[in-house]
Prior knowledge:
single chain, 164 residues, alpha+beta, two-stranded antiparallel ribbon, 24% helix, globular
Amino acid sequence: MAAQSIYDLTVKDAKGNDVDLSMYKGKVLMIVNVASKCGLTNSNYTELNQLYQKYKDQGLEILAFPCNQFGEQEPGTNDQIVDFVCTRFKSEFPVFDKVEVNGDNSSPLYKFLKSGKWGIFSDNIQWNFTKFLVDKDGKVADRYYPTTSPLSIEHNVKKLLGVL
């Protein structure tokens, strides 16, 4: 049966353990495909951290999914990726198992996220740091291009959190 919401899905954490996404029920999620060696890495991680620090206590969760499909910019192991994110950027949000976001081996999570109609680029993810905002009911509320600054969508995060 096709997932009706993100809460119907299970993903793997960076250690390979199952994570039932229903544990995030009632939270606003920003789901991002990340890479350590991308030109967008520094600005995105910096701003994601700022958003997370500002809104985590009000119900925002950021879920980072490493992906090596774009320019091979995430070549490391899960342990190397987590170490990089936690050491270099002091990120506190969870980093999950490396996934594919496009193609036949696209993770079920990304198949669900892309199931909306998103304009001229069809459903495929174009590059690292594509961002999806998911509302408290587990439905995709919006999708943002890799070049969209996380801080520029703060208003939409606040709206979904109900903290305007």
